[in-house]
Design brief:
181 residues; mainly alpha; 10 helices
Length: 181
């Protein structure tokens, strides 16, 4: 998942970044299912309301998306993943390219799974969360005083234009790799 994030910020090989993020999400979905009882208890203790416990992005989708559109949403979510996985069935098939925004959402859902399992963010993940909170502020809930909230404020002050701009992504990647060095 960290490699997917690095490729995202390098703004190259989005196909590999997507594949890594989707595989990470799929693997962590499986681990979450195998530890469901334990994770449910931990999340229930954290949020205090059984109606607010969500152990996957799909459970959140069920709450946010009208039932008649839920299956189509899941189909769309796996559209590119299935296309890549089943290329041998129709090797001449074509699909429209996925967008940077779609890639960001796949990475975000994979990160949610990772955090649910580990209760830890890597430097790449903090950087990505900070960036997406600037790029798509409607997607991220913030807690005052949280380390990510502070990182977002710092990143927001450093981005003056389009957060999806190639130069912006490159600058964020450079700052992140400098920090990791």
């Amino acid at each position: 998942l960290n490699t997917a994030i690095r490729l995202f910020f390098e703004n190259r090989d989005h196909l590999s970044s997507y594949t890594l993020a989707a595989a990470s999400r799929e693997v962590t979905d499986g681990v979450i299912q195998s530890r469901r009882r334990e994770l449910y208890q931990r999340e229930l203790a954290r949020v205090g309301d059984p109606l607010k416990v969500r152990l996957s992005h799909q459970e959140e989708f069920k709450i946010l998306i009208k039932p008649e559109f839920y299956k189509n949403c899941l189909k769309l979510e796996h559209k590119w993943q299935n296309f890549l996985k089943h290329a041998d069935e129709d090797p001449d098939a074509e699909i429209e390219p996925f967008t940077t925004k779609l890639l960001a959402l796949v990475i975000l859902t994979a990160m949610k799974n990772y955090f649910l399992l580990t209760q830890h963010w890597t430097t790449e993940m903090v950087t990505f969360l900070s960036w997406i909170a600037v790029a798509e502020p409607q997607l991220v809930k913030l807690a005052p005083g949280d380390v990510i909230t502070e990182a977002i404020a710092e990143m927001r002050s450093g981005i003056s234009g389009d957060p999806y701009d190639r130069d912006t992504l490159k600058n964020i990647y450079t700052a992140m790799t400098t920090f990791l060095a």
